[in-house]
């Protein structure tokens, strides 16, 4: 990051401070240097979340020796994987200026769709999975259509969709869990979540791909554009509606995929997977802790992964330390608030850096 | 000399002669075209790049444009002035494909066109610098310069190429930006404006629409943009419409001035035949009549 113009205000602190480190004392230069360093630290938001994740790792390992055993790492990976995949889709939506709170319900519904297709309509396993993902894409499209064309705020649209899907799920499943269809057992189930590290590998693959999509492709650039400056992006000829609808579809499909992975892993299809809203809100929390702005225009996929890792570490570590699971939510709440305050502070710094 | 409407070539649509004339004009060596444009007096002999006929546009109860007729010669710089709310920006947004007119038609090189979108207008050579600049603060200078026109090495962006070209184009224009990877949010108002103009200039546009290009400019940067427009004019292959409030600048850089009042063009003269005083008087007169009419008639 080079400052090409002579910034005034907060920016000057960083530029001047970075060049000349303080020579002792707690006068102006030292404080400016600290502020500059803090700013540089905050600028790489993924880096700061990664530091938190590493710090937690060190702390928990120091407190309990089993934290870094391979069994426990697998637990953390399994807690991280599926929700991080949902968080990836959430990042895309948040960056383009929208939100989807129905995605957790899509995750719960998708395994049922697969189960209905296989067990009631005798569809082969792989097409049935494809069908479940396609229906998820359709749900995403409907979310997009209602939010963009009919101009209902996406929070409200997807809140409605959340209850609608919940109703569909409960009526069609009679609220009973079912077993994984026979047709998917074996290799397919192993690959799609049952193997120890399957969900983490899928998660890393998806994070890698979508990180590239967000930072290195037209789609990513236009996603940032429609979230950052909706009118400007439209004036430049970007079809904002298309981009946003596409991102709704991405979020839904990733949600469905995460739901399938989770169902295969726990070897059962459960209408209360993730407790309904839990997946959605954890994914939003991960995205936000990872540095994605709710107002749109900026966010990182890798940050969301680290954000999810932090949350998974916290939950797991608390379990190992024997701290009540109830206080985990306390920590999660504080983590969200702190990262949002940091986010706000950061954007104010950025604005001040502009002359 | 007033402007006799040149016999509009679109009234007889036989497809044959038209494309021929067009290809001829295109294959002309540019040097020749340039001398032609310079030696000839304006009007009659020059080819028409853009023609707007009977354009009307309403937004609900608000009539933005009643009946707009406007033409633009090849290589000409047309100044469009008018009060706030006269409909200038609406007209620009119709010509650039952002809004669709309720009525009327647009002819490009004598052929009627129906603009489906901004993207469509861009592909046929109509590009715009908007009043609000349409820059994305979160993106770098070079990503903004190639916004929605990105160079691709499928499936990824060709960032290296875009960086190089952006730096080159800005240097050519004399815009002082040391690092094109800087986020646009960090630049000054004038630098942002310069980037928006540079973006359109290098888009190979045939028709360039500038909506208040000098609004956020300091004296130095304003001169830069004016020089740039003059430069484009001498090259002669771009036709430009400029919306501006500063009449001195309009007279300095434009070939012809149109005044838009109450959603229609009320005045059309070459800059050599008008003066700052005349334009000012015209606008003041409009204000006077509007004040007297205010109770009975509400124009916007």
**CATH class wording of chain A:** Mainly Alpha
The global form of chain B is: globular
What count of structural domains of chain B?
1
Helix tally of chain B?
10
For the largest interface, the chains and their residue counts are: A-B, 33 and 35 residues
Oligomer classification: heterodimer
The level of helicity of chain B is 25-40%
In the predicted model, the low-confidence regions of chain A spanning at least 5 consecutive residues are 1-25
Q: How would a crystallographer describe the biggest sheet of chain B? A: 6 strands, mixed
Question: What is the CATH architecture assignment of chain B?
Answer: 3-Layer(aba) Sandwich
- As a whole number of angstroms, the C-alpha radius of gyration of chain B is 20 Å
* Inertia-based shape of chain A: globular
What does this protein structure show overall?
The complex is a heterodimer of chains A (355) and B (300). Chain A has one domain: ABC transporter involved in vitamin B12 uptake, BtuC. Chain A has helices at 10-19, 28-43, 45-63, 70-95, 103-121, 125-149, 154-173, 187-194, 198-216, 218-228, 230-235, 240-266, 278-289, 301-321, 326-353. With 355 residues, chain A is an all-alpha fold. The two termini of chain A are 16 Å apart. In chain B, strand 11 and strand 12 (264-270) form a beta hairpin. Chain B is of the alpha/beta class. In chain B, helix 7 (189-201) packs parallel to helix 8.
Q: What's the quick description here?
A:
By secondary structure, chain A is mostly helical. Chain A has 15 helices and no strands. Helices cover 75% and strands 0% of the residues of chain A.
Give the arrangement of secondary structure elements.
The complex is a heterodimer of chains A (355) and B (300).
Chain A: H1 10-19, H2 28-43, H3 45-63, H4 70-95, H5 103-121, H6 125-149, H7 154-173, H8 187-194, H9 198-216, H10 218-228, H11 230-235, H12 240-266, H13 278-289, H14 301-321, H15 326-353
Helix pairs in contact in A: 1-2, 3-14, 4-9, 4-10, 4-12, 4-13, 4-14, 5-6, 5-7, 5-12, 5-13, 6-7, 6-12, 8-12, 9-10, 10-12, 13-14, 13-15
Chain B: H1 17-27, H2 30-39, E1 48-59, E2 62-73, E3 77-81, H3 88-95, E4 103-108, E5 111-113, H4 118-123, E6 126-129, H5 141-145, E7 152-153, E8 156-157, H6 159-173, H7 189-201, E9 207-211, H8 219-235, E10 239-243, H9 247-253, E11 256-261, E12 264-270, H10 276-293
Parallel strand pairs in B: 3-10, 3-11, 6-9, 9-10
Antiparallel strand pairs in B: 1-2, 1-4, 4-5, 7-8, 11-12
Helix pairs in contact in B: 7-8
